[in-house]
């Protein structure tokens, strides 16, 4: 999990006072302001991810030796149940764990990229029970994100020195079914100054449908997997791009940052959007004004029609969408993790067909 955060939030070694103008896409008529309900957390956690099961929220803690990696809370009362999974090489321990997205029921899957295995657990109020583990090919590396399509098919996102790729992968046969690499055109535009980080994106999916949001290009794309789990990509939405070529090719984080960690439901896309120079994500003294993560959320339907733009009363990085309860669960990365922030989206996109 920290691989992704390290890529998009790593330090740019040049101090400057960021004063870039914020660029907002003009496809929304107004902003909808949301105020969080705060659910107190007593456990000491530095979260990197939150996922929802049927009856539980699972918070992943950052890699800290001697501390548990996963904390389980009941959704009905938002009460702490238990924690588990320390770093190590013994049974029940992990070396580099990452939660697999799109778990079903109260099943929780954890991918450990060192042994290249997926561990599947049943989660109850008091404990987890390991029900299965599966070996995954070790040449799909480094893994940035992994998500279920169904019980046997997963999507992997990787990032290498030259490109980011998506893989559809059959867990039963341990075979790669298809790969996808987006061509933004930046290689040709930037020539020798090209840096593959300019093409980096984040992924989410709902079943066979997926959406990617590009970090340094004001664009997102949707697609789906066909019956053979081959990638089919739609045209996508290329918003006001402010010029394709980066304005500062020599310093990655002096360029505008757009989309990060999309989420989705069966009807809607929730795309965190920044529209500022990426230096605002960096800590002092790199950013003299202090870092902030004041992302808006652009909401579209799967047909790419704009629905709403959401403005939050807290900074955020990642979302966990509860489609059944019409809630967003998240946290403020600039504050101690004293609360889970819960936002109601009951009336967002209710007229979407």
Quickly describe the structure.
By secondary structure, the protein is mainly beta. The protein has helices at residues 2-9, 186-190; strands at 31-34, 37-40, 47-52, 56-61, 68-74, 80-86, 97-99, 107-112, 117-123, 128-135, 143-148, 153-159, 164-170, 175-180, 201-206, 209-214, 219-225, 231-233, 237-238, 256-259, 263-264, 268-277, 296-301, 306-312, 320-322, 327-330, 339-344.
Could you list some keywords that capture this structure?
about 350 residues, mainly beta, 5-stranded antiparallel sheet, 27 strands, about 5% helix, globular, disordered N terminus
Describe the structure.
- The chain has 353 residues and is mostly beta strands.
- The protein contains 2 helices and 27 strands.
- The strands form 6 sheets. Strands 1, 20, 21, 22, 23 and 24 form a 6-stranded mixed sheet that branches. Strands 15, 16, 17, 18 and 19 form a 5-stranded antiparallel sheet that branches.
- The longest helix has 8 residues, at 2-9.
The count of DSSP E runs of length 2 or more, i.e. the number of strands, is 27
**Main beta-sheet annotation:** 6 strands, mixed
Task: List low-pLDDT spans.
Answer: 1-18
Order of helices and strands: HEEEEEEEEEEEEEEHEEEEEEEEEEEEE
């Amino acid at each position: 999990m920290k691989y992704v955060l390290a890529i998009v939030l790593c330090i740019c070694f040049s101090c400057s006072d960021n004063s870039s103008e914020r660029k907002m896409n003009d496809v929304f008529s107004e902003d909808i302001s949301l105020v969080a309900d705060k659910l107190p957390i007593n456990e000491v956690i530095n979260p990197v991810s939150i996922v929802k099961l049927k009856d539980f929220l699972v918070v992943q803690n950052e890699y800290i030796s001697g501390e548990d990696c996963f904390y389980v809370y009941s959704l009905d009362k938002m009460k702490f149940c238990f924690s588990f999974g320390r770093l190590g090489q013994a049974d029940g321990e992990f070396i580099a764990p990452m939660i697999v997205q799109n778990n079903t029921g109260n099943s929780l899957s954890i991918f450990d990229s060192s042994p290249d295995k997926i561990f599947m657990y049943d989660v109850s109020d008091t404990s987890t029970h390991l029900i299965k583990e599966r070996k995954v090919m070790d040449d799909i590396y480094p893994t940035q994100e992994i998500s279920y399509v169904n019980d046997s098919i997963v999507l992997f996102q990787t990032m290498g020195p030259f490109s980011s790729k998506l893989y559809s992968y059959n867990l039963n046969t341990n075979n790669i079914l298809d790969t996808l690499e987006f061509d933004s055109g930046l290689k040709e535009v930037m020539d020798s100054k090209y840096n593959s980080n300019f093409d980096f994106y984040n992924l989410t999916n709902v079943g066979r449908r997926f959406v990617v949001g590009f970090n340094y290009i004001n664009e997102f794309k949707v697609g789906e997997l066909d019956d053979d789990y081959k990638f089919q990509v739609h045209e996508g939405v290329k918003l006001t791009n402010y010029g394709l070529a980066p304005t500062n090719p020599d310093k990655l984080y002096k360029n505008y940052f757009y989309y990060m960690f999309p989420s989705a439901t069966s009807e809607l896309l929730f795309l965190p959007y920044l529209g500022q120079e990426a230096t605002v994500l960096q800590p002092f003294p790199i950013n003299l004004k202090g870092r902030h993560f004041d992302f808006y959320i652009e909401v579209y339907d799967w047909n790419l029609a704009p629905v709403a733009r959401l403005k939050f009363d807290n900074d955020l990085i990642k979302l966990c969408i509860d489609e059944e309860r019409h809630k967003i669960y998240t946290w403020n990365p600039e504050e101690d993790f004293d609360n889970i922030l819960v936002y109601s989206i009951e009336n967002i996109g209710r007229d979407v067909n």
